[in-house]
Write a structure and sequence with these properties.
globular, 28% helix, 4-stranded parallel sheet, alpha/beta, EC 2.7.7.87, binds adenosine monophosphate, 2 domains, 10-stranded mixed sheet, DHBP synthase, Rossmann fold, tRNA processing, binds magnesium ion, nucleotide-binding
Length: 316
């Protein structure tokens, strides 16, 4: 895949590639990100197919500014204060997602909240003015696990996945964004990062607690509450009971469920990933007493699908 100096023309090409559902790697002030159109579920699936991404963690949607962010999520006074103080910059805000945001379910891992950030980087800004996108950090390069702060790192690691890499030279910070959740009564620090806690506290006018990894809202190592259906899940189902909803996979789904959704009759893992959260949500609302889940092969994206299914089964 081409590594292109980030000229105006290359940036337009990158925006067009995003519009076609392709993946583009681009620099921000923190690290290089892999971007996809946030509203295109298929494209977002491709981002997760990058190696070393065995889980569907929610992604941060990158936007040029507050006005663009507000089309996806409403800002309350606190969110606005933080964004006005730190945007563009390495602060990600977790906000309630507008139901009509159009953001693909995979971006938010099925949650009704979403993370937004306006990066402080001329190339990222120029690209995002043409196309908002979620991005994730490419896997670390080399045996030392060095962050991808250079276009050559990204190229070495990702092969053909991105349609193009916008080369903006080395990233200034090389540290992840600080993540602050502004959804309940009090904001919470979900991840320490490039904006120090004290600077956030100075803007808020009060201390902010780091979400406790052991707290019930968090899940180990991720500090993210995962989407989980209310209906119990039964994994590795090969037959169904009449009071069960069936989450099927592949051509030979058993008959007789109350209702069935097939993640992919063609056994296509990318299709299954795209449909996963919406399907769980629909089956959760079907009135079934249990959701039976057929086995999904534990390879490629299947590993991530199984990770989410296991979490959803455990979450209750
Ligand atoms: P990154 O690894 O830099 O791509 O950042 C992704 C991280 O942002 C996730 O691992 C979470 O920690 C955080 N994040 C994104 N969306 C949400 C959300 N809806 N709720 C909580 N945390 C989120
Ligand atoms: Mg992450």
């Amino acid at each position: 895949m081409p590594v292109l100096p980030a000229t105006e023309e290359a940036i337009s090409q990158a925006a067009q590639a995003l519009a076609r559902g392709e993946i583009v790697a681009f620099p921000t002030e923190t690290v290089y990100g892999l971007g996809a159109d946030a509203r295109d579920a298929r494209a977002v699936t491709k981002v997760f197919a990058a190696k070393d991404r065995p889980r569907f963690n929610p992604l941060i949607v990158h936007v040029p500014d507050i006005a663009a962010a507000e089309t996806y999520a409403p800002f309350d006074d606190t969110a606005r204060k933080l964004a006005e103080a730190f945007w563009p910059g390495p602060l990600s805000l977790v906000l309630p997602k507008r139901p009509a945001s159009g953001i693909a379910d995979l971006v938010t891992a099925g949650l009704d909240t979403m993370a937004l950030r306006a990066p402080n980087h001329a190339i990222a800004q120029a690209l995002l003015k043409q196309r908002s996108c979620p991005s994730l950090r490419p896997p670390p390069t080399g045996p030392g696990g060095i962050s991808p702060t250079d276009a050559t790192h990204v190229a070495a690691e990702l092969g053909d996945l991105p349609a193009m890499i916008l080369d903006g030279g080395p990233c200034a910070r090389g540290l992840e964004s600080t993540v602050v959740r502004v959804t309940g009564e009090t904001p919470a620090l979900l991840r320490l990062g490039a904006v120090p806690r004290q600077e956030i506290e100075a803007v808020l006018g009060h201390p902010i607690a780091l979400a406790d990894e052991d707290a019930p809202i968090a899940s180990p190592g991720q500090l993210v509450r995962h989407y989980a259906p209310n209906t119990p899940l039964r994994l590795d189902a090969t037959e169904v009971e009449p009071d069960e909803a069936l989450l099927a996979f592949g051509p030979s789904a058993p008959q007789g469920a109350l209702t069935t959704i097939n993640l992919s009759a063609a056994a296509d893992l990318a299709e299954a990933a795209t449909k996963l959260f919406a399907s769980l949500r629909a089956l959760d609302q079907s009135g079934a007493s249990r959701i039976a889940v057929m086995p999904v092969p534990d390879q490629g994206l299947g590993e991530a699908i199984n990770d989410r299914l296991r979490r959803a089964a455990k979450a209750r």
